[in-house]
Amino acid sequence: MRTRSATVAALMAAGIALAPGTALAAPTPTPSPGATTVTKAGTTFLSATPVAAGQPVRVGASTGEYLYWSFPAAAGETHEITATVALAEDRTGTSTWTVEVFDGLRRRQACTAGAQTPTADVSARTVAIGCTLRRVRPWAEPWSADPLPGTYYVRLSVVDVPEPDLGRPIDVDLLISASGDSGSAPEDGRLEAPLVPPTDAGAVLSTEPTVAPVEEDDHGWNIDLTGWLPEAGSRWIWTTAGGVLAAVAGVVGFALTRRPRRVRV
C-alpha cells in the first residue's frame, strides 16, 4: 500500500510538472519550406497583396496604416492568422491592435480563437495578434454568413493609439496557415463558383456612334441646325406656343371690348 501510494503520488507530481510544458509546447504555425517571403502589403481591398497559405510576410509600415492581404480558401480548410508587430521604443502610451478577416463579399468573419484585439503597454516592444477562422463550408444558405470557398482578405490595423504615436515605424511579421482536408464536402452540396464581389460592368460599344451631318454655307462656316434646335416635345416649344396664343387672345379680346369714340359736331 505504501509503495502504491508513493507511485500514485509520483505520477501525479509528474503530471503536474508536465502540464505546463505540454501547454507551452503546443504546435504553432510554421512557414512552408522554400516559401518566398512577401515584403508588401496593400492599403485597400482592391490593392490587397496576394499571399498563399504557409507563405511568410514581413513588411515595414507606420502606426495608423491599414495593411491588407488576400489568400484563397477551399472547402474543408481551417485557417489561422498569426501576426507579430514590433513597436517603436519611443512611444508615449498604450496601443490596441486588431486583425480582421473578410470574405469575398466583404463580410467580416468571426474568429473562434486567438488574441484578435490585444493591447500593448507603453513598455512593450512587440504585440502578438491571432485569429482562427471557422472551417470553410462547401455550401451555405444565401442569408447566412458562413465561410465559403473563395478569396479572403486580412486587415491589420491599430484601433486605439495616442495621437503623438501615429506615424511611428513598425515591423509586421504575418503568417496564414491552413489545416484540414481541402476539397472535402461532408455536407450534401457544394458551391458552384467562388465568392466574388458583385460587379455591374458597362457594355462595350461595337459600332461607332452616328454623327449628325453638318452643312457648310457659302463663306465656309459650319452650320449645324440640329445642335441648338429644341426637340418637338421640349418645354420650350410648348412655352413659346402658349405665349403666342395668349398674345393673340389678348389682342382679339381688346378689339371686341373696345368702345368706338364719339365724334362731336
Features:
single chain, 2 helices, 17% helix, Jelly Rolls, membrane, elongated, alpha+beta
Mean pLDDT: 78
Please give the share of residues in helix. 10-25%
The general outline is: elongated
The CATH topology annotation of the domain at 28-179 reads as Jelly Rolls
How many helices? The count is 2
CATH architecture of the domain at 28-179: Sandwich
User: Which CATH class of the domain at 28-179 applies here?
Assistant: Mainly Beta
* Biggest β-sheet description: 6 strands, mixed
Transmembrane segments: 236-256
Signal peptide: 1-25
Protein name: Peptidase
Keywords: Membrane, Signal, Transmembrane, Transmembrane helix
Structural summary, described in words:
The protein has 265 residues and is an alpha+beta fold. The protein has a domain at 28-179: Jelly Rolls (Sandwich), CATH 2.60.120.380. Helix content is 17%, strand content 28%. The protein is built from two helices and 13 strands; from the N terminus they run αβββββββββββββα. The chain has helices at 2-24, 235-257; strands spanning 49-50, 57-62, 67-73, 78-86, 95-102, 108-109, 111-113, 119-120, 126-133, 150-160, 169-179, 215-216, 222-223. Strands 1, 3, 5, 6, 8 and 10 form a six-stranded mixed beta sheet that branches. Strands 2-11-4-9-7 form a five-stranded antiparallel beta sheet, with no helix packed on it. The chain has a two-stranded antiparallel sheet with strand order 12-13. It is elongated. Mean pLDDT is 78; it is low at 1-26. Keywords: Membrane, Signal, Transmembrane, Transmembrane helix. Residues 1-25 form the signal peptide. The chain crosses the membrane at residues 236-256.
